[in-house]
Amino acid sequence: MLEISDNGRTWLLTGPTSSYAVHLTDADELLHLHWGPRIALADAEALAVRPLPEYWPFESPLDGREEYPVEGGPRFVRPALSVRTEERRGTEWGFERYETEGDELRLRFCDDGLTVTLHYRMRGDVVERWVTLDNQGPALELLRADSATWTLPDREEWRLSQLHGRWGAESRLARAPLTYGEKVIGSRRGHTGHQHLPWVALDTDATEERGEVYGCALGWSGSWRIAVAQLPDARVQITGGAGHDDSGLLRLAPGESFTTPVFAGLWSDGGFGGASRAWHAYQRAYVIPDADQDRPVLFNSWEATEFDISEEQQSLLARRAAAIGVELFVVDDGWFGTRTSDRAGLGDWTPNPDRFPSGLKPLAEYVHALGMQFGIWVEPEMVNPDSELYRAHPEWVQHQTGRKRTEFRNQLVLNLARDDVQEYLWERLDQILSSAPIDYVKWDFNRCFTDAGWPGEPYPQRLWVDHVRALYGLLDRLRAAHPGVAFESCSGGGGRIDLGVLSRTDQVWTSDNTDPLDRLAVQHGFSQLHPARAMAAWVTDSPNAMLNHRASSLRFRFVSAMAGVLGVGGDLTRWTEEELAEAREWVTLYKEIRPVVQRGDQYRLREPRGGLSAVQYALGDETVVFAWLQAQSFGEPVPALRLRALDPTVSYECLETGEIHRGAVLAHHGLRTGLRGDLDATVIRLRRI
Ligand code: DGJ
């Protein structure tokens, strides 16, 4: 809901539990008024007439209060907008008008020929903000154009939560007090990065289920930056957007425009859990395509076979996968060109004739005949120098004249800002998807930008931004042309997870680390922002070959992976009959609980910190609890799990044991899990009676 004051200078957006208000002063300063619990327009108007504090000349009363601080004038905070023309730098804007379209509010400002429009839209309790810049004046350089600046209310002792990581260890939650100055996170790598998810949360005293939490998440899959500033008067603002430093984002020629990605903000007073559930609901309703459709159980061949693949051996794996109940069989890297290792073939998107003499169609049809969908791996944005593509078009990669072309994993990055590169990729991918009944594409990205140059193009070069736009364009075009195909975002595991890519993909590869214990921490962090519906998790072999050689039971591995979109990635040709039979039982169970996991509300009952951890999902009358015991020390009793979202006045039947539990007892005294020893795990289903 959007309400506007009679004088047209105070705007109030309201969601189910929260409100957001801004006000334009008589001097055309756009001030932030409110972000928090629901208020009435009269409350916003009362806030609007509160005088600004008076400061000595070394501070600005605007700092920490402006909705979108531009560069220049009486401001000392980091600007959200920084532009430069031949003649001058900064912005001195005047308010032009406001517009509404449906539930979207647009506030339009002008500085000579540059129009800056701030966009606001409420989606549930999530405020979506973005900015468009339309240049009808002289050419200008956009040094910085953040999507939004978020202003927090006056409070003491803010804490900052972030999700940090690296390859094999993504999305790990860190929480620490905020102090004066700035905390800056981001990616300078051309993709979202393993190092930080583009999200922060701020609270003062929240617990998992109580207290105020403010969060912001950026929808951009290239380089980005979020700066959280505690200003000299202790006020906190968060500004964020595309682009990684102040060296320039784009040039805007006369007549050109730029739209920033969305920076979404959420206030919740339901603690960290309530905030996460609101983010999950938002993504399922407004971001992830077809989120009401449950994702199938997949098999992925990577850990089983790596590059050593053939049609016959993939067929054998497919038979095994079908026999345990897998619904989607995905052939990973190695099916195309001369790609028999990571040294060659990337870029040549035709099936390897030695491995797939009649193309992918026979295997795809075979997989379909086994009752499964068929998927393939691609990494379209890259090329090995040892490839037909690179030999034909060495100028198609990002590079700088006279400088080295840095290789990571023996590959270079294609310059997707080029129309000819985009067209090549579109033709190749469209051709592959038309050549065989393919239902699923795992889209990988296995190195960061380094020598991101485009000889002949003026600086600042638009290839950083245009690479992401081209990626989005390709995904959009492929989805439109092949509406039955689902896409997975992968970047050496979880290197490209953000709201931007999630609006075009059906699920993400969470991490190359498939160790089921490490995964609990990764999944705990992931769940702060993203729903289980998007979180792919595989059961692989034990001991874990990829990361740490830790041995774990099939039970522990399945219960860990079943908390997301279940997949299997082990070498099924080496699993014993008993293991295959057990796997089949877990897959059957997963299919039964899948609607609750993928569409239900998630409650983190205990975080993974060494002993017992647990997650609960609730949907309608059904509740599913996943519990893991990392280690039991000194034979101490394992704590009971106090469940959430239950009706205390009714009873629940445990589908595992047939026991009847009172809701009030489960909520206040807890559910006993029966877990013992080390690396034990269980799934408990409860149904309201
Ligand atoms: C990195 C991915 O994360 C893996 O799952 C696998 O697809 C490899 N790339 C293949 O090269």
TrEMBL record:
Coiled coil: none annotated. Signal peptide: none annotated. Residues 29-252 form the Glycosyl hydrolase family 36 N-terminal domain. Substrate binds at residues 167, 332-333, 409, 442-446, 490, 512. The active site is at 444 (nucleophile), 512 (proton donor). Keywords: Glycosidase, Hydrolase. Gene3D superfamilies: Aldolase class I (3.20.20.70), alpha-galactosidase from lactobacil brevis (2.70.98.60), Golgi alpha-mannosidase II (2.60.40.1180). GO terms for biological process: carbohydrate catabolic process. Its EC number is 3.2.1.22. CDD domains: GH36. It is an enzyme of class 3 (hydrolase). GO terms for molecular function: alpha-galactosidase activity. Residues 620-686 form the Glycosyl hydrolase family 36 C-terminal domain. It catalyses: Hydrolysis of terminal, non-reducing alpha-D-galactose residues in alpha-D-galactosides, including galactose oligosaccharides, galactomannans and galactolipids. Belongs to the glycosyl hydrolase. This is Alpha-galactosidase. It comes from Streptomyces caeruleatus.
